[in-house]
Fold each of these.
Amino acid sequence: MKDLIKNEIIKMFYRKKILIGLAVILISSIVGVWGTIAIIKSTSPENEIKITQQKIANLKKERMKTKDPIKRQKIDEQILQSQAYIDNLKISMKSTDWRKDVKNQLAKLKKSMKEATDLSLLDSKEYYREQILEYEYCLKKNIKPYTLWQINNWTVMNIFLGLIIFLLPFIVFIFASDIVSNEISQKTISLLVTRPISRFKIALSKFISATIVCSALVIISEILVFIITGLLYGFIDLKYPITVGTRYRKHGLELIPIYGSTYIVPLGKFLIYALLLQLLIITACCALSFFISAISKSNSTAITLSFLMVYGIYFIVSPISEVVSKLNFLKAFLLYTYLNPLDILENNIATNVMISIMTPFVSILILFGYIVVFLLTSLKIFNKKDLLV
């Protein structure tokens, strides 16, 4: 089995498309980091204040036109949140004592938490508690909270992941979508299956080799971005607090975070969890690609179907669900929804699909479901397929 996997990996690196894949990863990394740094620089306090002031002006105009009391209440909440954001920015620009600033912020947050109505996400007790947890942890560990406009390897990586994740299926499809169909079209598969090796081992070795190559290329590129940006702009403390695991309850058409559900993990541990999830996500993408390759007879068909299965269906369902909110749950069944490991850990998936029972554990189960269903189906198809024609 080891020799089969080794041979499959070697064959993958002899294919011309390896250069295309490497080029995509290199270009997307360079452009992604450059764009990320530009985004961070655009969030300087001065720019943020101007943007937020314009947002408040627009909200006030919208409020004047709105007669619905519930909508007006939500707009009032947004105005208050935006004004508080401006006030905090102005204070942070003047202050030099970060511990004093954090204590002042804690006092305001605790007061806001007591007054929170728990009727909307931005005015829920857990929304304020989440920020309180971060600030209290920073005080306890003597870690200065970073701001959105500060450039370090974590602020870059956080935004960079959101940008690069869009290309993850594309990278996987380049290497894995025709791993079977390519050999069928070139009629080299018949030589392989006539050898005294079970079809199960042949198929499994192809899947494992594709997963190893895709995982190595994607994760190594992400680690390099994290290290290089750290050397250029500074490394963030790996003890820095990250809030994860928020759970939600249904309230009308909204999801409200459950009080006490969010907890803190240090950044170092968070990155390990994210790395493991990234491996799981890539494996799920490879399982889907392997399935499509097993049912396809040509390279072009395999690649086209792969794109339609991940990108096409999502970009059809997503706009429809925006119009018909009751259809949001459909996104829970699409692989594209689970491509960002940070969204899974922070449980942003729940608010995306508007399902209150969604948790990081449920997201992981769905990814495992993708792997098991598509891999087993692929192995069955490969075993019954007429490959000697």
Amino acid sequence: MDKILEQLETLVERYAELQELMSDPEIINDTKRYMAYSKEEADMRDIVNAFNRYKELQKSISDSDEIMRETDDPEMQAMAKDELNSSKDAAEKLEHEITLLMLPKDPNDDKNIIMEIRGAAGGDEASLFAADLLSMYSKYAEKQGWTFDIVDENSTEVGGYKDVAVMITGSRVYSKLKYENGAHRVQRIPSTESAGRVHTSTATVAVMPEYDEVDIDLDPKDIRTDVYRSSGAGGQHINKTSSAVRMTHLPTGIVVAMQDQRSQQQNREKAMQILKSRVYDYYESENQSEYDEKRKSAVGTGDRSERIRTYNYPQNRVTDHRIGLSLNKLDRIMNGELDEIIDALIVNDQTQKLEQIQSGETKLF
């Protein structure tokens, strides 16, 4: 804690400096600088306030200790002892809170996400499992008060998905769903299995933050756009014009095809939105892999080739292999009750970051 307290004193000095800068008329008139300072000040506010409370508690502990040493009055000693114990308990809790607040923050945690789910190994059963995962995340999003919109889908004849892309918007979506990146395995008896044998299939989940114009700027010269007629089952909404859009980012070879929207313009906007996230995710993953090689941590790496979780239907069990957590409540989890798993992954991630700080691998805030 001593190392953290030293850095906190420096942080308090910077916080005071920022408040002074933000009252400078010259900076107030410079919108860009003012916004940058405002964001920095806001990011520090909770930590500084917690540290100020911590210092008040330390003073209370010191004062109570002094009273106990200098007075012979039993009543005063009892009051001071109660105050001392209360302040020590509060300070201990606050130390933990401050430590968590000081952990390096993921800059994407506040962002909305684009999630892509694909049926992988297992044919029709894999596509059905992809649909089950889509339903699970939809129910979880509803419980969180988030908005859940399908933006592109490629369904199968059995009612599953070869692939489906959704946009989830709300408060701190990425901070909770970033741990879902990876291969999800299901063990169950498929509806098409006449002999009653348990099959193993997989579906992959990719979670990408939704990036704004300020985050990434794609050169139009690097994007090839093709338009074509949407395919579909027909009906009154069948497209009679070339409204479907396919965008290819030439440097990476990433392709986004969009035909789910009613007009070419809407398909263009959605395709560009997803393309930006995929391209940014591509470049970020390259950097992340270098970082993870040093850090050797599986949680939150976004490695989609690794099996992160198994859903065992015969035993009503879900196992997250990264943290060794098994829960015999698969039915509830598939109903969107993911909090227990996600909270455990967050705690594990925080624990690993604390270990890196203590070993000197990672700097604080």
Amino acid sequence: MSTAQVPPVTSIGIPRITAGYDEYGRLDLQAHQEVHGGFAALSSGELIGLADRIELRGRGGAGFPFARKVRAVIDSCKRQDLPPVIVVNATEGEPPSWKDKAILTRGPHLILDGAALAAAALDAEEIVIGIADDGIGQNSLTAALAERKMPCPTRIVTVPHRFISGEGGALVRGINGEAHIPPGRKVRSSDNGVMGLPTLLSNAETYSQLAIAARLGPWEYNSVGIPEEPGTVMLTVGGSATNPAVVEAPSGTPLMDVLAMCGADIGPGLLVGGYHGKWISAEQAETVTISRKGFAKVGGTLGAGMLIPIGSKTCALGEVAQVVQYLAGESAGQCGPCRLGLPDLARAVTLVSLGGSALEQVRQAAGLVKGRGACSHPDGTSRFALSALEVFAKDVEAHANGEGCGKQVRGILPLPYTAEKGARKLALDWSRCDGHGLCSAVAPEIIRLDHNGFPAFPQTPLPPWLEDGARKAVNVCPALALRLIDPATSAH
């Protein structure tokens, strides 16, 4: 069960979900039982009561109360006279996030315990566990299922490792054999989910927290953390951190304690909540405690627990532009605000990173997509972009006046496409370029002309959706100065 691709796992205080990781590495069933002990089955009423008393909310990003989900499924089952399905969302499609994969690879039985508790309480027809097709955690989960008996048939479904595949509606559609994209309209899985049955869908960490609470009971579970949000939180700390890690910490822990543990250089800003989250300044970060309430005080969000300090050694605007380009390419392509609006937003943000005066274009593009998509993807992308321009205002000014920040893009914000994975980049032979400017007319989302009329473009790998435009720019260059190269091999 290789865990080589998952960051190290550590904790602040006494570990709960991550208990036994240091001693066993990965907990098989015997080790799991030695560390965590057994638990008693719960009735549906006891399940709801436990979730209510520990204030259990979804840990996948939205933070929806788990007890309300259970009540909605029970009501739907009674109304339709149908059995429910339990779905565990362990897809974790965001490139910076690793917390669920850490549990999958090292403590899979906790996830299965939580799913089994819910299935037994609701007399479920089936348990379905959705994971990404990147292979991380699949062997560990398969082995765990082989070691135990579940209360109902349980299967693993793999979905494409894409940003939008983990959206609840997209996961249900994928399980049903449809396209792995959001449904395009509001569909409550509690009414019509897997196989048309009422479906209880929640995140892998959520089920793990439920399993911990069933063992400890609400009083002991609530003895850690803050009263409004008791228990621990699983966090992924990456970005500029010299010791990136998955960290389990009690709610209420000062944010700076977590960042210091991971050797994080915040630089001018910190991204909280992932690529649909929000940037906060270094000054704001010093005041935050790890909780939904703590992040809300500075206008941020805990989301799925991603903490990504940008650091002081990379071009922040270049990093942001790459991510917005990636998010534009991750559109499901089924509604205009997303299919057309996000590329416009990506172009405008890229122009700002290249020194163009496109701030108003960014705001206009973001305004045109906010609140108008069939899912939350346009809203999240806009929030990411607009908050970046606010936090990195000094960099925006430096780029706009022609001086730039003097830093290269170092890939601090992780992306699924890199030079090592075959992504290509534009290169210019300066001895040939005569400044015709045709390339910028063909591919304005990638190339702009500097004040001398010569092309300027990011020195970073291109997202796949921009390669066609880059190829057209190469083909129209009369001096044959522009080319597409593979940075890993320097091959044309």
Amino acid sequence: MSAGKTYDIALVPGDGIGPEVTQAAWAVAEAAAGKDGFALAGTTYPWSCDYYLETGRMMPEDGIEKLRGHDAILLGAVGWPATVPDSVSLHGLLLPIRKAFDQYANIRPHRLLPGVEGPLKAEIFDILCIRENTEGEYSGAGGRVHQGTSQEVAVETAIFTRTGVERILRFAFEAAKGRRGRVASVTKSNAQKHSMVFWDEITRLVAADYPEVEVTSYHIDAMAARMVMAPETLDVVVASNLFGDILTDLGAAIQGGLGFAASANLNPTRSAPSMFEPVHGSAPDIAGKGLANPLAAIWSAAMMLDHLGEGQASTRILMAMEAATARGFGIRPGAQTTDAITDAVLTAINEE
């Protein structure tokens, strides 16, 4: 705990329900900070699809430099496909931030909160998904030629570097050391004989440095089945950008839905700010109705505080979330308003 310290946070509420859940997460984070004797100072940036329609850019040219001076970034949601294609919004804001700040570790926790009923028979599981976040299938390398003709060709090239693969694997092994000591490395090396065989080879090399960690390599289809049939057997799951993205949406489903899915985009070297965001997206269908579940954003804010070294405040938020869901708040979509769920978490913090 850093009593008296003030952390400078960039707030990017974004689109749809993003502003609603960001406001909720910020209120909870400030309450936890107050309990533990430190402060949060937020600077809000209006970068969004509306901003794009006004300016032709998802963020200004100096947007990255504006963010660079902050201790962390709390993001709401990006995307409004009715007006701006997702390929524009994603590549104009979210991916540039991840890459510019070398946020190569995307962390997504999956477990059931008290009172939440997932779709599976399994009730006790705790999976930490670690996704490579800056290269792989989302590198953006490729192009299209002869567009609009019968000879049109589209090429999307996945980029895997030894540095990128090794560092995300080492991050996963280190995480496993602090948990239950098991790593599941996910590829599709039977079909992708270059990049995924390469990933498997690096996994074996890194594993040799961690004899205390049990490692198993899975193909992506087998891992998808295991997450459904036996999620309790998994501890740390590490995968490439695309595979990790898909698996963590599956992980969100087994923990009760995207309303509980938190994430951190970490720069483990701390040479640049890390970014924290719910996984659920902008949900245009419920935007502005006050029905968004803020728990994923609140959980993301707890991850932010933990990364900043305020582990006690982070735990305080997680315990307050658990107290709220145990009382029935936020466990069923649309059963309570965003404000009611937020107030339940705040009440639990204040009662401590």
